[in-house]
Design a protein that fits this description.
Blueprint (H helix, E strand, L loop, with lengths): L5 H26 L5 H20 L9 H27 L3 H5 L1
Helix pairs in contact: 2-3
Length: 101
Amino acid sequence: MQTINWKGHGAMFGANAIWGLMSPVAKFVMLGGIVTPLAVTDLRIVGAMILFWILSFFQKSEHVPPKDLAKLFGASLLGVVLNQGSFILGVGMTSPVNASI
């Protein structure tokens, strides 16, 4: 009899739930006009940076060659700044219903 890995299913459900709620929650926060799309993006980036920094204390340190650091910096700009900036800017231009689709 095959056992089900509930831990994996729970992680997938959590990731999908967070992904699905990301647009409507961001739109709801920006509806009041107090928080701009750029401020929401900045808060998300700084929050993720702090969480990864805290998690780094519990991981074994690795040596990364300087050549690879430049590649990681470029990838972080594409993956975080441009991606999240474009996402939040787009959410700011849509209605809450369209943002959740």
